[in-house]
Every structure is written in structure tokens, then in C-alpha cells.
Amino acid sequence: MSVENRSIEENKKSLNFIEAIVEDDLSENRNDRKIQTRFPPEPNGYLHIGHAKAICMDFGLAKKYGGTCNLRFDDTNPTKEDVEYVDSIMEDIRWLGYDWNNVYYASDYFRQLWDFAVLLIKAGKAYIDEQSAEEIAQQKGTPTQAGTDSPFRNRPVEESLDLFQKMNRGELEEGTAVLRAKIDMTSSNMHFRDPIIYRIIKHPHHRTGTAWKAYPMYDFAHGQSDYFEGVTHSLCTLEFVPHRPLYDFFIDELKCLTSDNSDYRPHQYEFNRLNLTYTVMSKRKLLQLVSENLVNGWDDPRMPTISGLRRRGYTPQSIHNFIDKIGYTKFEALNDIALLEHAVREDLNMKAKRVSAVIDPVKLIITNYPEEQVEMMEAVNNPENEMMGTHQIAFTRELYIEKDDFMEDAPNKFFRLAPDREVRLKNAYIIKCTRFKKDTAGNVVEIYAEYDPQTKSGMPESNRKVKGTLHWVSAKHSLPAEIRLYDRLFSVENPGDEKEKDFRELLNPDSLIIKASAQVEKELVHAKPLENFQFQRIGYFNLDPDSVTDRLIFNRTVSLKDSWSKIKNK
Ligand code: ATP
Ligand code: MG
Questions:
Q1: Catalytic annotation present for 273
Q2: 304 within ligand 1 shell (Cβ under 6 A)
Q3: Same domain, 184 and 234
Q4: Are residues 364 and 438 in the same domain?
Q5: Are residues 321 and 413 in the same domain?
Q6: pTM to 2 decimals?
Q7: For 43-125, where are the E strands, in sequence order?
Q8: Rounded to an integer, what distance in angstroms lies between the CA atom of residue 176 and that of residue 181?
Q9: Ligand 1 atom having least distance to the Cα of 273
Q10: Does residue 420 share a domain with residue 333?
Q11: How many domains in the chain?
Q12: Is-contact 195 140, C-beta < 8 A?
């Protein structure tokens, strides 16, 4: 193989299948080499990480091939939609690092869609059905059994036109009439069995108010909206595969009835959804968690929403890296949440400043250290990145260490503090525990130790080997903090898929543990909302936006232990 051919082959291999389609379209000069995509959320909830996968595809493709990507709100069901959702969706897309060329709304096309529906009725290709939803469903048949015609299927065109107007003027009650496309009640594709294309909704719309009472269904609005906008590649998830023939059918009808003889037409392509273990990913279920107060809002750090992940301390880069790793295929999969956690750990390892925080403090008194002395110890901000420099941490006679870093009767393998044993205090001295004090309940309340002045980090003597290194903060020079330890929201791998139990019964009761009496080093007074840190030996944390100066609040993004690497290296 020639060098040139080999590099073409390699390029093809690194493309995902949709990029390969786009490159093929470009090389064939299809649609005059125009690449236009859209991200089409329904503003009925906050975006979740599944949407991020679609966003990276829609915006990423346009960016890579010099095309355009528009944001289109698919607002065809006013009962569930709200401007709050519109605003949050915009914020989340921007946070992921993308911007749209234009913002459109499916409701911008209500007039055009209406006109198209009228053309269909006039051409004898659509009719008003006045049966109940149950009757229509019964006549639908099954994939192996043909459906039966509605008694209204062949009603006069004039009657349908008149009723369509009445539907929209609010003269008919919800559920009493629908507009159906007259296609084929025997089709093997159930979507072709006279699909409903308009229904009556009397709830006011967040943009068009009460102007419309007849609303187009998804299958009638989506493809046509793509066409009106000039979308070339309409990307969606695999559950829309069976809808694609109907998508094409309506585009054909629209081009035909409006005498559009151009070569332009949008095409739909489908990729696999993002599904994650230990969480749910449907907006309906996420809305239930929020409205039933099972979590603290859409941006609860346990939620798989973009706003939840942001508040939890995830970075846009970590989400991009995760999505790159799982890739785009034509096969459904359940992705391991450990891979997402691995991605944020990897990113924060390079970016997060190392600081000291003691989550469950117990006092440690260095009895041979002068009472009023304060020594500023140098702490490296990030060993992975020298450019991040150092900061100072105050060392004093009275310190806090973690309760579980001390044990009264410690086994040999306990490489932390115990009576008569030595440990190093990170960035400071080697100390030896001399005694400890208990309260009446038997809890250790104070630990006493002596330090060796020759062992300060950086001194020649400091090379003396001790088995453990503990983090600590100065009692006087630290700040009280609340630390929110988050864990997986559900206790089973696939809560949405359990047959026996409702997903809400499967919530992990320990998904949030609040540690109210933590002490953190003073440096953290400068922390900005959402800023990421590594609490040494514990994990990655960020400052919660609810934090106030005299009560700092930190969220655990992820612990230091990486269960994914273990799985991977098995
Ligand atoms: P949900 O099922 O959670 O309610 P949805 O599909 O109704 O989601 P939309 O707002 O209609 O939500 O989705 C906008 C776009 O995001 C669609 O193109 C959809 O295919 C895509 N999308 C939604 N969920 C996922 C997911 N889990 N993985 C990848 N893409 C997704
Ligand atoms: Mg949808």
C-alpha cells in the first residue's frame, strides 16, 4: 500500500461512522458540500450527560467540517415545556464549549406545518379522525396483523378541512379529534398505519401563547423543521430508526406538494444512546426525582444532568474525554459509570491544586513544639504540573488529623499513627505518638506526639524511612467546613430496567453523607465557586456555590481510588 493510501486508510479508521458518511458526502459534492446539523432538545427538562453525547456529535461535526449547527427547541408539547428549561439548555451547551449559529424553535414553523397539513388534506392524504384514542389504538393492529381502517378515513375533504379549523380554534375538546395522515393501514412499519400528525392541546404555549390549539406531533414536525432550516445531516439516537421511513415519506410529500425540484433534502442518521450504570437517563424519571424531592433539584450533584455534574466538580474536558472514549456506534450499550469517574480523575489530576482538609478531625498535640510558634511549610500545588507552583501551610503545636488515621491497638499493617509508632506529617516533620486521651464514652479525643526537628521535609534527615504519611491542618490556622460526600445515586446497576421494583425504591440511601465539622487549610478561603481541588489522600472536591465565607461547603467529585483502572488492567 502506498504511503498516501495508508494514511487515507488510517484516517478512515479513526473516523466514526457518521464522520465517514460526511466525508463521503463531501467527496461526492452532495448538497453542494454544505454541512448543517442541529441539536433539537425538547425544553421539558434539564439536559443530561446523554444529551452531551448528542451535543458533541451535532456541534462537533459542524465544527470539524466547517459547517453550521443550530439549536432548535422542539417545542411542540406546551403542557410539559417551560422557559426555565430553555435557559438551562443554553447555559449547559455553552458550558460544554459550543455555540450555535442560530436559535430556532419548532413553534416558528407552526404556520408552515399547518399549511403543509392543509395541502395533505386537500390532496386526500390526511383526514380528521373523531374516534377516541383507545379506538384508534385498537385498530392499529400488530406487527404481524394488519390494522383496520377508521370509519372516518374516506370522509370528504371539505369536512376534514372544516374540522381541522375547528380543532385549532378551540371549538373541539381535547381528545375528540386528531388529524391523521392517510398512508397504509397494512404497512409492516407500524408508523405508516395512518399516523396521527395533529392533536388538540388547550394549554398555553410558552412562546405562542393561545394562538394555536392544534399541535403537530413529533414525526410531523421534526423532519419538516429540518427541511425548512436546510439541515443536511439530522442526527439522532437509534430508537428513531423505525421512524426514518416516515421522515423520508413526509419530506417527499412536502417537496412534491410544494413543487420543490431541487436536489436538497435532509437525511436522518442514528447512533447509539449513552446509558450509564447506577443512574437513570430519562427526563421523565429525572423530573420525578426533582418534583418528589428525592434529590435537591436538577443540579443536585448526584444527578446525571449537565448542571448536576458541573456542580459536582466535573469539567467540560472530562465529559468530552469520556464521550470520546465510549464513541459512536450502531449498537446499544450500557456504559460503566466508573469510566466517567476515571475521566474526571484523569483531568483533575492534571489541573487540581493539592490542599489539606481533615474530614473527621481529632486533635493532635506536638508536646515538644513551642506553644506560640508558627512555621510556614511549603506545599507543592500539583506534582504533575510544576507551573502551578507552591503555597504555604501553617504548622503549629496543635493540629487536626483524621480520626481514622489513629488506632489504639493497631495491627502491623496499619501504616498510620498508633502509640509508639512514627509517621510523617506531609510537608512537615516525622512525629512519634507518645499517648492519647479518651472521653468517658471511650472515644479518642486527643493524641499526643513528639516531633523530630531534624526531619523537616527537605532536610537531609528527612529521608529517614517511615511507613506512613498523614495529612493534617493547624488547629488555629484552619477553617471549619461542611463536606458533602456524594456517592452513586442508585444502589443497583441498571435501576431503569428493574422489573420488580419502581426505580425510586432503588435509590442509594448513602448517596449523600454530610460531614459537618471538617477543618480545611486556610488557603481555601480564596476558593472560587466550583473551583476544583484535590484534598490530599482523600479525593477531588470543589467549592459548592452555596458556600459562604464563614461556612465553606465542598462537594466530593470523586474519590482518589480508581476502580476503573483496576477493571481495565485485569
Ligand atoms: P429523554 O428520553 O431523556 O426524555 P429525549 O430524547 O426525549 O430524552 P430530547 O430533548 O428530545 O430528549 O433530546 C434531544 C436530542 O438528544 C435528541 O437528538 C436525542 O436523540 C438526544 N439524546 C437524548 N438522550 C440521549 C442519550 N441518552 N444519548 C445520546 N443522545 C441522546
Ligand atoms: Mg425526544
A1: yes
A2: no
A3: yes
A4: yes
A5: no
A6: 0.93
A7: 68-73, 103-105
A8: 17
A9: 28
A10: no
A11: 3
A12: no
